[in-house]
Write a structure and sequence with these properties.
Keywords: Kinase, Transferase. This is FGGY carbohydrate kinase domain-containing protein. One of its GO terms (molecular function) is D-ribulokinase activity. InterPro entries: ATPase_NBD, FGGY_C, FGGY_N, FGGY_RbtK-like. The chain has 634 residues and is of the alpha+beta class. It contains 21 helices and 22 strands. About 9% of the residues have low confidence. Helices cover 38% and strands 16% of the residues. It has a domain of 271 residues: ATPase, nucleotide binding domain (Nucleotidyltransferase, domain 5). α12 crosses α19, α16 packs across α17 and α17 packs across α18. The protein starts with a helix and ends with a helix. It has a 7-stranded mixed sheet, with helices on both faces. The chain has a 5-stranded mixed sheet with strand order 3-2-1-6-13.
């Protein structure tokens, strides 16, 4: 039977999800009540299960010796799956990563859920081996992943979302911009839900991507039985429980999490019927079929991050991961949000031991700096900020409103600037021969140039080079996916020194973008005065110092570099009941490291204020140019 015939057979045989489909199969609920031998039976959410889904965990399988309490965090980024093991104080015991495949074709960026799961299993086993952690010691597990869209059929098999028809490619990656036109049409609807997305959806969110698939891949649209954020698919794969996270649904699907504000608090957490979908919105944008069956394809139940799902790991998932069946699994987070959970309470001891200030968390912003950068701030009141995503209720720290700014390309932009320069190969070889990063080598070149040219400070070297870093659009605070990157000050120079200047100007452009976001948030109700930063880019001392100097606030780095993994592990700790809430777990497991202060040199501030003014002007020039050309072509 060829693939097409197989897919047609699945379509014909697929069971529809009706309003009467039980969330939990009655037979297995009865087994749970009647079971008296200390075994646990797993029950699947939203569909009947077979005998092969039975999970067994007996007390005799645990060694009688005193075991540590270890919590496992899994993070699926754009290029790799990573696993990290932490003790109850948040100290890293071991970590490992495994690469994942990615397909790029113009605006289309795709991945495979099968490939990702295999990479996770590899990383988890390697982390346990490196950390000398037994499976019995792992008391809880949490997942985080990019906000990518996953399609599976009624049997949980991949459904292609690719023009190629390749069945492996069942994930539209977060950075995919194929749905720009669909996003524009959705935003033209002026639906009330859009005010909780900064005034409009981004093509990186799920509704535009879903609409694109419906309009362009009809067969895939008909076959898809579940549409899931990648984080939710991971917990579903691990536990069989289709409960979705308030993080993913609220931030990327227009779910109104505050519909639950009066129903429940985090300490009484349970999976909740999904009453926050705006059916009128889905119908108006042409996706009314997703409302069918109590929203079965996009989520019939939701829960706070860290809520324990089902009865933990299924037997099959546990075997593949090398862990114990029944290990508690927490409701997931998007990767950037896990970074926020892993770092937001990382304040120096002198601050945390002073008079308790419950509002202090609302004056902090977390920068999660990787391929892109996310800017996370929380508040008790809901704050509507034009061009900035949110406010999202309980999307990161339960029972707080989240404001989420972002830059779509930061680490990716630095890679692009460096790798596409003619001097890059030679520079990369020099760095490799010394076993340092190319960033470290560029930083050394800049210091040498400062001495040679008698510059008052390194940052002054870029007085003739100015960069608008919108090479992948502007996510915040302008919210213009059509914005383009701009470089002012190019010459015919192709030397390593010229590349170093471009690199420095790019770092500065990224930092000016963050300053723009911080200023915009504070102008609309926030009172941010402290930054915390995590992610791969924070290992670059120049990147962190430039942000501190340009924004004018101290930047706290966490004790543990792997903040996203720690945030994921915190979800497992909460699911295991080690800590009653995510906030309590954050306070116990977060810890501060180095604090980077802004320069006290008034000349540095004056310099950056001038460059920031030019930075803001570059976008205004681009708008003017765009308008002129549109008029010329009309």
């Amino acid at each position: 039977m060829d693939y097409k015939e197989k897919r047609e057979k699945k379509l014909d045989s697929r069971k529809s999800m009706t309003d009467t489909t039980p969330l939990l199969d009655n037979t297995y609920q009865e087994n749970n009540r009647n079971n008296n031998n200390n075994n646990f039976y797993y029950r699947f959410n939203s569909f009947p299960v077979s005998n092969s889904a039975v999970v067994e965990m007996t007390t005799s399988s645990v060694n009688s010796k005193q075991l540590r309490s270890v919590f496992l965090g899994v993070d699926v980024g754009t290029g790799s799956a990573r696993a990290g093991l932490f003790n109850e104080d948040g100290k890293l015991l071991g970590s490992a990563s495994s690469p994942i495949q990615i397909w790029k074709d113009g605006d289309c960026v795709e991945q495979s859920s099968t490939d990702i799961w295999l990479a996770i299993c590899t990383a988890v086993k390697a982390a346990c081996a490196l950390g000398n952690v037994s499976k019995e010691e792992v008391k809880g597990l949490g997942f985080a992943a990019t906000c990518s869209l996953v399609a599976v059929d009624s049997e949980g098999e991949p459904v292609t979302v690719s023009w190629s028809g390749d069945t492996r490619r069942n994930i539209i990656v977060w950075m995919d911009h194929r749905a720009v036109k669909q996003a524009e049409r959705i935003n033209a609807s002026n639906s009330p839900v859009l005010q909780y997305c900064g005034g409009g959806v981004s093509p990186e969110m799920e509704p535009p991507k879903l609409l694109w698939v419906k309009e362009n891949l009809q067969e895939s649209w008909s076959m898809a039985f579940r549409w899931m954020d990648l984080s939710d698919w991971l917990t579903y794969k691990a536990t069989g429980d289709d409960t979705r996270s308030l993080c993913t649904t609220v931030c990327k699907w227009t779910y109104l999490g505050h519909a639950h504000m009066q129903q429940i608090n985090e300490k009484d957490s349970r999976d909740m019927e999904a009453c926050g979908w705006d059916d009128g919105f889905w119908e108006e944008i042409g996706l009314g079929d997703l409302v069918d069956g109590h929203h079965a394809k996009i989520g019939r139940s939701v829960a706070f991050p860290g809520h324990a799902l089902g009865l933990g790991l299924t037997l099959s998932a546990a075997k593949e991961l090398g862990l114990m069946a029944g290990t508690p699994v927490g409701t997931a987070l998007i990767d950037a949000h896990a970074g926020g959970v892993g770092v937001m309470e990382s304040v120096p001891a002198s601050d945390s031991e002073s008079i308790v200030d419950e509002d202090a968390i609302s004056r902090r912003m977390v920068l999660v700096c990787g391929t892109s950068t996310c800017h996370m701030a929380v508040s008790r009141p809901k704050l509507f900020i034009p061009g900035v995503w949110g406010p999202f209720w309980s999307a990161m720290v339960p029972e707080y409103w989240l404001t989420e700014g972002g830059q779509s390309a930061t680490g990716a932009l630095l890679d692009y600037i460096i790798e596409n320069h003619v001097a890059s190969p030679h520079l990369a070889n020099r760095a490799a021969s010394r076993r340092i990063s190319i960033f470290d080598l560029l930083n050394e070149i800049l210091e040498s140039m400062k001495q040679d040219e008698g510059s008052p400070f390194v940052t002054a070297l870029t007085n003739d080079i100015h960069i608008l870093p919108d090479f992948h659009g502007n996510r915040s605070p302008i919210a213009d996916p059509k914005s383009k990157g701009m470089i002012s000050g190019l010459t015919l120079d192709a030397s390593e020194k010229q590349l170093a200047l471009l690199y420095l100007a790019t770092v500065q452009g990224i930092a000016y973008g963050t300053r723009h976001i911080v200023e915009h948030c504070n102008a609309n109700g926030h009172k941010i005065d402290t930054l915390l930063a995590c992610g791969g880019l924070t290992k670059n001392r120049l990147f962190v110092q430039e942000h501190a100097d340009i924004i004018g606030y101290p930047i706290i780095l966490p004790r543990e570099n792997e903040s996203v993994l720690l945030g994921s592990a915190i979800l497992g700790a909460v699911a295991s009941k080690k800590y009653p809430t995510v906030r309590e777990a954050m306070k116990a497991m977060n810890a501060a490291g180095q604090v980077v202060h802004p320069s006290k040199d008034v000349k540095v501030k004056k310099y950056h204020d001038a460059k920031y003014s030019i930075f803001r002007d570059l976008y205004e020039q681009q708008q003017k140019h765009r308008s002129l050309m549109t008029e010329a072509l009309s």
